Structures are given as structure tokens and as C-alpha cells.
Fold:
Amino acid sequence: MDWSATAKTAFDPAKVEGAIAFFKALPQPIRPPQETLEAYRELVARNSPAPVLVLGATPELIDLALDLGSDRVVSMDWNADTFEAMRRTARNDWQRVDFVHQEWTSPKPEFAGQFGSVLCDGGAMFLPSEQWEDVSSHVHAYLRPGGLWIARCMDGQGETEADFESTVRADLAAFDGSAKADEIAYRRLALHLRISTFREVADRDGNLDQALFAARNDLAADLMQQAFADGSAQKAADQLLRTLLRPSSGPSMMKSAAGPDVTVPALKRVGFACTQCRLSGDNDHTGIFYLTIAERI
Structure:
């Protein structure tokens, strides 16, 4: 394959800076925790140094592929600004990383049989179920025999009952008091609480219990503002929670937060075998996030 044909796509410097700031505010488990990265590393190493394709531009995954000495590392994403932002936050020099400016849902015939591993961290959870199957079909074509499709997904049902108020109070108690004037720290906390609001609020068709979801958002906002009673902290908390915890008026993210009972049959329908799922080690959110691992035979 002629990898030199990879397009060098222009980016918007202002959008790149915004993407860097947003990325740095993301907490785990939105960014892959260490235990999850170790699982990726173990799996990708099985086929090293075969080329690796990353759907998206997760810097931890691209750095991991470079660390393992992969022959080629390719990032496929629709957003050039995001790729440039992630390149600037990465540990490694990405001179050997090829960027393909393309939607995952569109096939790339010239990639057929080229990769030992295809990885996607988090982005797969935003795909509607029919697109998940389409993307997995493309991935199947991109892989060599024995290649692995590894994607971190989210199960909107969760695995266990959770006391939401206790979870929120624990998050607030663990918040570093020295960081209370730091807006980035507030954003990280609010995003962490955002994940907690999704526990046990969707049925198997992905439909949200809107009343429960709204009640949880209100409770999280009240508890956070009580925890930070001074005026400036309360204002910061209020602004962030209004943005991050409000119920969406658009299609629910949970429509695509499918559990293994949905993702595994879809993978088998497009030709994968030896499919398994494992909890991804995301601390107290284990049971929501899981790794789907599928092998092309």
C-alpha cells in the first residue's frame, strides 16, 4: 500500500486550542484509565509489529501503538482539528502517524487486509446500533486474518444497582479542596458526575427515563452547590452543571450505549469470531464501560 498518499489536511488553530483545553479537562473513565490501557497493550502486542488503525485520535492509543513499534500507525477521523490537538498533547512524536480525514462509516477499500489491530476508545459508544454494525463490517475488511477489533463501549444498563446520592457525595468528598478555584477541576468533576447520572436510566432500546434523569441532574447540582458555598465557587459549579448535566433535547446518547447482548451478535453477523467482552477496569464505573474484543479468523 502507498502510505505516502495520506492527505495532509488543514486545521483551524483556534479550534485546535479549544480542543486541547477540553481534552485536558476530561477525567477518567472518559479518558482510558491505566488498567484499560494495559488491556489494550496486551491485546495489540499479540500482533505486533503489524500496522495499527485507530478510529479517532485518542492519544493514549496512538502512543501505545508507537511504543509497541508498530510498522505503521494510522488515525482515521472526520475532524482534522481534533487530530492536531491530540498530536500536541501526546507523549510521542507523531511523525510516523498517518492521518486519514474520513468518517468511520464510509469504507476505505484500499485498507483491505492491512492491519493487525483496529482500536477505538469511547467513540464507538456514540454510534447508533446500525452504524456500529456497518463500522464493524468495514473493520473486518481492514484486518488481516487473526487481527483484532478492540473497542471500549458503554452499557447504559450498568451491571449493579447504585446509590446515586452516595456516589455523588463520595465524588464531592474526594474532590481536592486546593483546586476549588480551578475551573478545569470543576469541569472534570462535573463530567465525572455526568457519567454517574446514566446508571440504570435506560431500557434495552436505549430510551431514557427522563424523570429519573432530570431528578438526578437536579440532585447533583444541589449537592455540588452545597459543597462549594462561597459565591465564586457556586457560580462556577452552576455554570458547568447547567451545561454538562442538562438533559439533552436531541437523540439520547444512550441509544448507542448498547450492552454486550447487542454488540456481540452484531459482530458475529459481520463475520467476527472468538468475540468476548470484559469489564474495562474503570474504578467505580466498572459495569458501565467494557471492552469488546473480536477476532477476524
In short: The chain has a mean pLDDT of 76. The longest helix spans residues 210-227. The chain is about 40% helix and 15% strand.
